[in-house]
Amino acid sequence: MKNNYFYILVIIAFTFITFLSSLKNDFVNWDDDFYVLQNPDIRELTITSVSNIFSSEYFGFYLPLTIVSYSINYSIGGLNPFGYHLLNIILHVISTIVLFFLVKNLKFTINLAFFVALIFAIHPLRVESVVWISERKDVLYVCFYLISLLFFSIYILKETKKNKWYLLSLLFFILSLLSKTSAVTLPLILLLIVYLTNKEPFSKLLIKLIPFFLLSLIFGILTVYELDSGKNIYEYEENYTFIDKFFLATYSFIFYILKLIFPFDLSPTHYFPNKTDGLLPLQYYFSGLLTVFFAYLLYLYRKNRVVVFGAFIYIFAILLFLQILPAGRTIASERYSYIAHIGLLIIIGYFLNMYFAKREKLLILTTILIGLFMSFLTYRYSLIWKNGETLFTHSILKNENKSLGYINRGLAHYYGFTENNKIDYNKAFQDFDKAISIDKKNSEGWFNRGNCYFNMQKINEAERDFDKTLSIDSLNFKAWNNRGLIYAYKGNFDMAMKYYNHSIFIKNTFPDAYSNIAFVYLNNGDNKLACEYFEKALKLGSATAGNYLNQYCK
Which pTM was predicted? Predict the structure, then answer.
């Protein structure tokens, strides 16, 4: 146990020091605004509010415990980002300590457990999950996920009082699912644990795992339904064939392996490739060969339980994120490696442990030296997450020919996700203008440039850009609302009302349109109806409707 204390203290110290600078980070305009800053559901921590959270979805995902955790943060520190970052780090540290005990409990050496836990904790690919407030769902679900695995491993290996460990494992699996549905892979990892330990008859095991698989099935169906509804699926920008999609999947599969070993050239955005003369870039076809080589190595080591165990942890954990159905604009996202890398680290640690079998101190020293190098890379990479401007400036440097980076950096300038929260419409305009020059078919560039024009009092130019937005995307409810603002600015309140109502028809939870309708009623002298619409806007999370209620509805 004394040895445990040394290793645990080293892991905790490394992890906190590595991520310490992120405590000074701000929110970023990449989902933080929707999950936290503009989310009315986190403003109260009551039975009613928690009930509402458990009956709602966010971005098409069901993650009630994650939203409740934001509500806890808000009740303690409001919208101070420090507390949100601190809780992310604490959850990650807990996961790391649990992982150490999990690997050790699976009868691996303490030095191997130390290697796996330390490198897992401070690898640069952890940055996205730990320092991005919106990725609370990752650090929360993984924390519960690993605790469930630990309790199940104790249940498998312990000789007495086993049932409580089984029930605890099931409980934490449920908590993990309620944090993020990606936890559906856990029963497969449980199968691997039984395979590794070789403790239980397979038929007896299947019966015990039925509740886990049933829960996975239920939440898996929920996830597929969400994807099938189109809420989380993006259209490919390229016309990829079936063969193309196969190589896109193999590229993603190999990407996370290579980035574990060579954690360089990292970015929050790794976009889908463009085709040239009907062909993908060469590295996508090469990834297919590397995938075959991976399968060949696995075949060679098929009788080695540790290699099979680690390899299939990686396969099962990464399978959901191979973008077979594109759940985003990127072919790979570094946060998706969170669970998957554990399997690969076990394999690497296993062979290092064999190599240093008679030189344990040298293995510990090697682990610490690798840890120091990884810690430096992670610290340096985490600095780009300081605010939205720094984040998307880095993204642009890595992807200069993509419009999305310029749009997002423009939004950072527009809304003040910058140093000292400074709003700069001129810089925002320049970024949106650049985005349009890169991709004239992206409605977001036109819409946001229209907003800049409007705030610069260039009404005719704003009107033109909003019309262009709607010609590309007729379901852009914000553009309908803003087109209504222009009619109101010109004094045509009847037309303004039509556009506001059409915005609500498309998105009936958009608070700005309700507030704007309220102003039309105020202009018409109908304060009663105006106040009703301000009330609706407030309930939907409007940041300003409360002030208007106090001003006009006393």
Answer: 0.92
